[in-house]
């Protein structure tokens, strides 16, 4: 009996990340076609309450790794605990989100298992009984499709917001298996977690992102973007030029050396559309660009372009969106 199709159930502060539900939905289909069980791996402290949601979104089995050591993510602790579990049960596939945590954990677990890992995938499908992983290359200019015919489990990280979520099946249950995690020797000890207080959605999970570039002219003008973001319930991002100028923190940077995002709507304000920026947001469903240069590269990828001064356009957008909300 194969060890199943596995999904890493990422949670933060006791709340499942949306990408977990996206992975479960995709993995459910694979599990059904492969006639394997769909198992979720849930790590943390006091997270057992999430098992029900995982079941409703498709998990047949939930491996629950709970301990004080796993309350906060550490590469050492999570890698040891998750690797031991994989070694014991030998899944055929192991999917994680392409998030800060998922990227780190997947790389370390794959290295320990000496197995194949596809990163930053935008699609996973079954073809002739073989899983095909699709990922962007050359900063999003082309796509690569790969298979991993031998090494098991085949591992992949999948970009958040690219896979659809199936509706939950109320009342569906899963077998919950409590595992006594063996975190091994943990060299990193988290003494305190300092949180940035924000009521806005997390950049990589946001459905709408309003981003600013060098065209914002200064840090004080990001207030304008925050106002637009708050009307839309959006997150605020930035280009590297804006981050390098010290107008926005690096945590807001979108692009090759920043975050990869896939929102439904990306509004680029005063951003020229350099290839390194497009690498991080090119898979957004709808791109709106506001730029005073009609030749700006961003218009080549934009679904809707507004040629104009953002300091005139953005206040008008805020005004109109506010009216729509009333
Ligand atoms: P600019 O290219 O200077 O564009 C500013 C735009 O604002 C212009 O198009 C201008 O017409 C417009 N504008 C000015 N005033 C107004 C106004 N009042 N109203 C409307 N429009 C206006 N970049 C990233 O973003 N993310 C990355 O992760 C990243 N990684 C990189 C990695 C490497 C290895 C390298 C070499 C570069 C990387 N870059 C990255 C930098 C990238 O090449 C660009 O330099 C950067 O994206 C430019 O940022 P920008 O579009 O804000 O600025």
From TrEMBL:
Keywords for the protein's UniProt record, in alphabetical order: Electron transport, FAD, Flavoprotein, Transport
Pfam families (alphabetical): ETF, ETF_alpha
InterPro entries: DHS-like_NAD/FAD-binding_dom (IPR029035), ETF_a/b_N (IPR014730), ETF_a/FixB (IPR001308), ETF_alpha_N (IPR033947), ETF_asu_C (IPR014731), ETF_asu_C_CS (IPR018206), Rossmann-like_a/b/a_fold (IPR014729)
Residue ranges occupied by any Electron transfer flavoprotein alpha/beta-subunit N-terminal domain in the UniProt entry: 5-193
UniProt cross-references to CDD domains, sorted A to Z: ETF_alpha
Keyword Transcription regulation part of the UniProt annotation: no
Domain of life: Bacteria
Membership in a protein family: Belongs to the ETF alpha-subunit/FixB family.
Name of the protein in question: Electron transfer flavoprotein alpha subunit
